[in-house]
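chain below, 213 aa
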Amino acid sequence: MHKEKIEEKVFRLKVTLVDSKPSIWRVLDIVDSETFFDLHVAIQGVMGWENSHLHCFVLGKPSDRKNTIRIGMKFDEEIDDESELDEDLEVLSEYVNFFAKKQVEYQYDFGDNWVHKIELKEIRAKEKGVEYPRCVDGRMACPPDDCGGIYGYYEILEDYGNKASDAHDVAVEVLGEGFDPKYFSVDDVDFANILNTYDEEDDDWDEDEDEAM
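prediction:
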């Protein structure tokens, strides 16, 4: 029998950094047949993170922890939480109801605790000639990694704008000269940089194995 080919759709998702004021957000398109690992890479790329920390997705009502689903990294089967599903295997389309109900969070860096709310804005037809994922809109610059979370970031911003502050020089070192917290351009989004971090990890792993031999 001839099996009917399932037509891929595109999820248009809005990703908002929780507790950011004014809101730091991005809108991205991703094909619904992609995995949660692919969504992780897409979020890292559109936000501007460095992909240097652990992460996971939490699906369901945050207040109802017993009935939430965790999807994350399965890099070591011996120590991984058995209740956490493998992001490489879970497909976005299977969880469309969670996205539609605004019940998906992406957590990055469990120390700084960057929490992103993910909202399904639209299900669209896949366009010919378009490369996915893609960033279609956004506002405000992403905080740098390792700056102490959202409240630490705002403290650094305050010191950055106050040359009389004792911590001004440290803030400039963290944020860089000419940092503009209001700046964002979709033209600056580069997913390849995030994927390259995995190639670098593989190289480091190979070097460690060679040294151990």
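Residues 161 and 168 are 8 Å apart (CA to CA). The chain has a mean pLDDT of 89.
thats it, cya
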